[in-house]
Amino acid sequence: MDVRSLFATQKYAAQRPATEPQPGTGGVQEKFTEAAQDFATTLKDAEVTAETAMVGDADPHALVNALAQSELAVETVVAVRNKFVEAYQEILRMPV
After folding, report:
1. Which residues are CB-neighbours of 53 under 8 A, at least 6 positions away?
2. Are 80 and 67 in contact (CB under 8 A)?
3. Which residue from 45, 41, 33, 39 is spatially nearest to 78, judged by alpha carbons?
4. In this structure, how many other beta carbons lie within 10 angstroms of the beta carbon of residue 46?
5. Other beta carbons less than 10 A from residue 49's beta carbon
6. Could you give the CA distance from residue 52 to residue 56 in angstroms, rounded to a whole number?
7. Residue 55 pLDDT > 60
């Protein structure tokens, strides 16, 4: 083994921990669960703000802000869903 390959091995070993998942950060399933809960909370908050605006107790600016946030959340979820469907269709087109 020459010196260059030894240095390359040491560099790889030093960089490898940066690419490994951090302990306690959770998996993909936990991230999607958190995202779904955040989405549901955003829609629920917008609904509550809209209900209070109908009664006349909410600030119109708060209503517009809540509606804009809920619209952005729905557009994001639709975009993610479209990417999943596109990936699934691509997998179905793969030859076996």
Report:
1. 60, 62, 63
2. no
3. 39
4. 20
5. 21
6. 6
7. yes
Give per-residue pLDDT as tens, 79-95.
999 999 999 999 999 98
* Spatial distance between the Cα atoms of 5 and 7, rounded to a whole number of angstroms: 5
DSSP helix/strand/coil, 25: coil
Residues 42, 46, 51, 57: is their CA dihedral positive or negative? Answer: positive
Neighbour-count burial for 13-37, b at 16+ CB within 10 Å, e otherwise: eeeeeeeeeeeeeeeeeeeeeeeee
Q: What is the pTM of this model?
A: 0.63
Kind plus residue range of the DSSP H or E element containing 81 = helix 60-93
CA distance 3 to 60: 70
Whole-angstrom distance, CA of residue 4 vs CA of residue 67? 60
The label of the residue with tokens 């629920």 reads: 44
